[in-house]
Amino acid sequence: MDQVPVVIGNYRLGKNLGIGAFGKVKHATNVITGHHVAIKILNRNRIQQLDMTEKVKREINILKQCTHAHIIRLYEVIDTPSDIFVVMEYVPHGELFDYIVMKGRLSPDEARHFFHQIIAGVEYCHYHNIVHRDLKPENLLLDAEQNLKIADFGLSNTMRDGEFLRTSCGSPNYAAPEVISGNLYAGPEVDVWSCGVILYALLCGSLPFDDESIPNLFKKIKSGMYSLPSHLSTLSRDLIPRMLVVDPMKRITIPEIRQHPWFQHKLPLYLTFTPDMLELHENTLDHDTADEVCQIPRLVATPAEVEQAVLGSSDRNDLRVAYELILDSKRSRQRAAEVAMAQQAAAATTPPAFASASGRNSPNGPAPALALQMQAQNQEKAEKATAALTGSVSPSGASQPTRRRRWYLGIQSKKEPAHVMTEVYKALASLGCDWQMLEIYRIKCRCRIASLMPIAGDGRATPFGFSPSPGSPHPANEFIKIYLTLYKVQPSIYLLDFQKLDGNPFDFMTLCARIITELKALSQASRQLQQQLALQQQQQQLALQQQHQHQPPLDTMRAQQPHPQTLPTLPHDASHPQPPFQPGSAPARQHMANVLPPVPHSTGDSHHHPGVVPSDPATSTPESMELR
Q: Where does the record place the Protein kinase domain (predicted)?
């Protein structure tokens, strides 16, 4: 007797596809459209036992934001009292890892085909401030058309402007040096490193960093110790080392990878679109697909209802899911056709030659001369705009060469971190700010906006340089909240970073300007104090030298002393001769006791008076923070 299939919502469950940490993954079919999906069944009790509630919520929220062709698609989430059913895109051909194990190293064109899709998906994640942090062939799935889908966002996280990540996670063989070292990282650079390891595995069939011993593996990763096989092309030998740079600040970025000649070769048209262009396309209704949804017998809907379900906030979730399933299937066929066309067009042209290490020349990009001209024009416009903002425009114009100035994020200082934070506390106190210490070098600060702004004629606070508007007064209880964090950027070089937590951007900039002004004033006062102490020390040394010069020699002082005279002899009884006067005798001790004041008992420990200050100004007063 056949077993009755289980139906959850609009899905008929089928065979098991795998078993995860929280439950099973089953194949299912949408009973309305007939499309295949994969349903991840998450047991609530199991999630609570493993304390993974926040992790599951974060992964679901991240997948809801991603509607890219090469990121696993989330269609809907069905909640029950015991389980959570996550309906996802079905990818039947398994992991890229198994594909590499089966075929070994791939051809350059096949590796490039997969790499195109990986970079496009990762770029889309970074556009939405999502960092994956666990990119590896095991988390890259293949669909029926051999297209890649980035999956498993369990270790991913959301990036926030001005904040860094520090969690050491991911697979050791694919993790960046800054991740395994426990250092702070922004996010995109660690995904670039993982993509470099994956590209190496695609072209070579092995991993660049591999060792049975984890300490030895970490040593290789931190030092960037790997070798490039001789069969790699010149362009690939240029791209891989630029992705596997140990220093994250010198590592190539996703936009630079996109401009590399090896990447530009045979690039399909749909992968040339930027994430913002894709977002605009996603927010546009495909009317042909909407008409197909309206023709489904089990769905009674009008095109307007479908549009409201897709682009609006309608409760007709069945319409939205049916629309997305049909549209994804249609676009998948279109992308396969575009990939074939790109390969045919590239086969008729000459492969790109390696022109320079920067990899800016590409057959699909602008001509080198035009690119250089555009770059020069953009640089000239940027310099003119900067000069206009800073008021440094010279009357002679371009005849005088402008001095290139290096820009920094925040305030840099070479002083000790403790001294820098002390100066920050003084500046905040002088401005009347409140603060809370979150960590040793990270504080949360708030300041009343009215105390920062000059008062207008009607008694309202206005930002510096702006005229008050009738509808924008600052209430007395309105605050601007910021984060202040001190980072170590280089040995003996520290950076104070400002980050807006809550409030108006103009108020934030005003508060930053006031804090910087106070820090500069404190730095100037400390520098003047150092100069005064140094001058006092020089004067004291000069006085001592003059005193030594006017003091007579020791022989002259001895010659001026009077000669000792013969003391008269005291009479004594001849029958009772007196013993000679000895310093150590009892009468001598009694005599000394009558003459000398009492001496306090000493324990042998030397104590410095708390009011005594060392004469060296370098140690007596902290160095002032030097602002740049």
A: 11-263
